[in-house]
């Protein structure tokens, strides 16, 4: 991964460089980064994150569902076939999802499928803040939600994932690490 | 380009197939297609287009600006370097933008730059509905707008472009052409 930038350095980026760097803070999220671009200059790393959140919060229900559809199933087909984004690979690993037993893998797959059948979008949770057991419990619990609550819940997890990804890319100090 | 689908065929697509086919109806617009996906089954080709428009209309000002930033400058750097999407290449050609004189090219480049400096996003116009002279006149005229009016005007052009791109991909009749 490239070196972290300070906020003045982020503010000095050209548009294409900004999108290259931050277009994956939300999965396949060039549009989200392009919306955040409107708010430059950013005052701080928190302000940068806030602009991503602002775009997400203002989306319609279908828009929130669309954001969730950009994420891979946890330990799903894409992970098995090596098709995850670099960010997702690290996050899966942090949660222990790269070392599931056959039983755990089957449980997670079945719950994911049931969730997608009910809601029409995949289950999204901040894997770096949850271990595999907490993820399986979260899936069971959130399955009880209605679709509007669950879209908001999922997007809140997207914001947490985005926050951690941004922390890897930019920081508040005025010089590089 | 692949064969047109009827609306029942569109409704029978899986999610990934749908995104592969319609993710470029709005430039780099996987998220827009993923939002339209929420409204399945589509009643008609118009209904399909309406769902793309619905997402665009519900975007915040920054979101609308972000959509416009997904489009290349007309006859700009990307066109010169062969970096346009397949759709954009055809649209540039339809407007005669692939055969500008040196003077026309300079005029268009200068106007594009002035527009981007004023608004912070590129000038978007439905090239298949305009020839090069009309595009240059449109640029001059729209430069007088304020930024909110111009974001809405630009997004209305995005909807026209999307409409024509969708017509190439799906049709109302119940059988393939």
UniProtKB/TrEMBL annotation, chains A, B:
Subcellular locations according to the entry: Peroxisome
Signal sequence region: none
Keywords, ordered alphabetically: Decarboxylase, Lyase, Peroxisome, Purine metabolism
EC code(s) of this entry: 4.1.1.97
CC terms in the record's Gene Ontology section: peroxisome
Pfam family, one: OHCU_decarbox
Segments forming domain Oxo-4-hydroxy-4-carboxy-5-ureidoimidazoline decarboxylase: 11-167
GO molecular function: 2-oxo-4-hydroxy-4-carboxy-5-ureidoimidazoline decarboxylase activity
Pathway, per record: Purine metabolism; urate degradation; (S)-allantoin from urate: step 3/3
Biological process (GO), any one: urate catabolic process
Keyword Lyase set for record: yes
Enzymatic reactions: 5-hydroxy-2-oxo-4-ureido-2,5-dihydro-1H-imidazole-5-carboxylate + H(+) = (S)-allantoin + CO2
Keyword Lyase annotated: yes
Assigned protein family: Belongs to the OHCU decarboxylase family.
Purpose: Catalyzes the stereoselective decarboxylation of 2-oxo-4-hydroxy-4-carboxy-5-ureidoimidazoline (OHCU) to (S)-allantoin.
Protein name in the entry: 2-oxo-4-hydroxy-4-carboxy-5-ureidoimidazoline decarboxylase
Lineage start: Eukaryota, Metazoa, Spiralia, Lophotrochozoa, Mollusca
């Amino acid at each position: 991964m490239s070196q972290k930038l300070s906020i003045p350095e982020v503010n000095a980026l050209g548009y294409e460089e900004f999108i290259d760097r931050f277009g994956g803070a939300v999965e396949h999220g060039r549009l989200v980064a392009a919306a955040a671009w409107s708010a430059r200059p950013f005052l701080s790393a928190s302000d940068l994150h806030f602009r991503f959140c602002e775009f997400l919060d203002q989306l319609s229900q279908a828009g929130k569902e669309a954001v969730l559809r950009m994420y891979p199933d946890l330990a799903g087909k894409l992970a098995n076939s090596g098709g995850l984004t670099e960010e997702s690979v690290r996050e899966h690993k942090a949660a222990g999802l790269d070392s599931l037993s056959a039983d755990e893998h089957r449980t997670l797959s079945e719950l994911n499928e049931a969730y997608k059948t009910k809601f029409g979008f995949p289950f999204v949770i901040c894997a770096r803040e949850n271990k595999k057991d907490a993820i399986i419990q979260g899936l069971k619990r959130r399955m009880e939600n209605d679709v509007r609550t669950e879209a908001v819940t999922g997007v809140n997890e997207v914001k947490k994932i985005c926050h951690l990804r941004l922390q890897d890319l930019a920081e508040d100090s005025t010089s590089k690490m």
